[in-house]
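Morning - adenosine-5'-diphosphate inputs below, output right after.
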Amino acid sequence: MDPIESILASVFGFHQFRGLQEQVIRHVFAGGNALVLMPTGGGKSLCYQIPALVRTGTAIVISPLLALMHNQVDVLNQRDIAAVSLDSSQDEQQMRAIEQRVLAGQYKLLYVAPERLLQPGFIQLLRTLHERHGIALFAIDEAHCIAQWGHDFRPEYQRLSILHQCFAQIPRIALTATADLLTQKEILQGLAISEQERFVASFVRPNLAYALSDRPHAYRHLSDFIRKQPKPSGIIYASTRSEVERLYRQLRILGMPALCYHAGMSHNERQSAYRAFMDHDQVIMIATVAFGMGIDKRNLRFVLHHGLPRSLEAYYQETGRAGRDGAFASAHLWFNTHDALLLQQRLGIGQSADNAHHQNRVSTLLHFTVHPECRRVNLLRHLGENSLPCGICDHCRNPPTALDATEAAQKMLSCIYRSGQRFGARHLINIILGIRTPAIGSYGHDRLSTFAIGKDWPPYYWNLLLRQLLAEGFILGNADQPGLALTTRSREILFDRKAFILHIPGDSAVSTATHTPLLQALNAWRASTAHRLNVPENAILEDQSLIELARLKPSAEDELHVISGLGLQQTQRFGAQLLKVIASCASS
Ligand code: ADP
Ligand code: ZN
């Protein structure tokens, strides 16, 4: 059997390569260099780990993130692969000992921070290693750190040109999840990788299901939502600090494992919230977007936006934090018409010098929220990629119904006009439904000709209609006073009889049918095993494997090999225990 395929199955327990993995692996195996651009969770690690195992010598992996290095080493060691890291968490004596074993050729993979690699003594050590046992390859993780003007610039990365100067014949594989064309160019130049050796994957996140819905008022919905998740592990983004604190208090009162994070907290409070989030598997972070950069927790099962994000780009980045391990994860956006209005106002329509730019960003975002097509297709198109319908988002599962709402739109526009173009959604809907609130009485709005002309539609439809009118530019948030106003385009509907089609969402619930007692039992088994062996949970088995085990319920050892992520080593060590957990759940 082909050595590359046999390692994929026996060591990693995967049945097939993902995306560009195989191409990259064969290219590097044969001695080529590579720049690999894949979204987070795309499977970059395998691109250097498999060549590291099939080529002669030790692979040197350069990574700036200590926590990630440690996690990778744990994962590899659990699979019986000799891997180690040299980093600032070790003392001098430990480092010497590891270096001796490195020189004896005892490791297949060695992880080092860039500053350590660049020390003259270390380069010498690599030379000796190269002479004695060989170096399989250099992997440069987070390679975008090389870009001078990029957001994560690291000066040490620029000095990595030493690699091709000293070890010209050894393959260099650079990996990153974010690099625009300019940054890609800098990486290619800095590491002397040729133009043809660039492997750019799609930015589709196949395991991520997007779902948008109206934000319910009651907090109970939030706790219900969390209870329905396969596991309480995720991030909830709220737009303001006070909202974060309010949601946090509510969830704590309900006994949920919640943490909070925002820029108003002290440095120490934020640090400890961050640590607690990273250290616990089942915990929910409620945060403003200040909680963002550098979060790398791979097994988050959901991200919920409680309110609109700032832009579609931000939305992609923020939702992308869910499901980095490749297992099913969901991205929820809960918002209402008022949010849309506020966003438009906050970004200063008609006030800022970047007005056109802002307006564009807001309307792109609002458009995304109301457009009936597949959410992923829409999102990725804005990132410059054409993709196919995902099949798992709310729209794919439950396509919206199109309704000719031209007449209703005319009614609403005229209602906005007659009430003076300064009232918000709720008041307008009350007028059109004919509800005599005190405000309506005091403004005399019950005497408008549009009072009660929309009684045959439920409030929900009117809300949708307003939102869609807003998203499509037929009305806008008024800049100097609260409320909705007409635009130059309103007349297209009012007078030119332009058809207005309303898209009414189907039931937007994303199924999380995997939440079963067996899955819970498997989760508990993994937690205690990880605790006993003192390794992170994903080093035992990843979420995806547990989900498959819960679904397929294998009952004999030889059925275990169909489970993704169960390599030979894992099956030998844990197979019997897993079968026991499954059997005991089946009988109870
Ligand atoms: P990243 O690109 O973010 O570094 P990783 O290499 O950590 O991504 O991979 C993300 C997840 O996908 C991991 O849980 C990994 O085990 C899983 N994975 C990678 N390759 C495959 C594959 N060929 N089949 C199934 N799962 C895979
Ligand atoms: Zn879809």
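Note: The radius of gyration is 28 Å.

O.
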